[in-house]
Recover the amino acids of this structure.
């Protein structure tokens, strides 16, 4: 599809949107949220596929501390980790980096 066609389609969609009633907008909202959730889940699955149980990884906590850990389990959206200091964490795969073996 060309860029010109995409712009035209968006303009037509925006025009149609202005004429929709509340029920149609609520339905459209549900469809958009479902699609966004599906895309996010697919992205997470691809990112999780980079890791396997037993991988050594590292990540940075919210307060800037780097933690090293082993992947214990791969969940639907996160990886369950056991850090070197014995803590259990569930971390999004996008925050993980593979680390050298201990």
């Amino acid at each position: 599809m060309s860029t010109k066609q995409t712009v035209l389609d968006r303009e037509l969609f925006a025009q149609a949107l202005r004429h929709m009633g509340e029920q149609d907008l609520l339905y459209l909202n549900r469809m958009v949220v479902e699609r966004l959730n599906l895309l996010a889940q697919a992205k997470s699955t691809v990112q999780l596929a980079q890791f396997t149980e037993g991988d050594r990884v590292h990540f940075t906590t919210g307060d800037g501390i780097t933690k090293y850990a082993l992947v214990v389990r791969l969940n639907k959206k996160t990886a369950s980790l056991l850090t070197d200091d014995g803590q259990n964490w569930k971390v999004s795969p996008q925050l993980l980096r593979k680390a050298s073996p201990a």
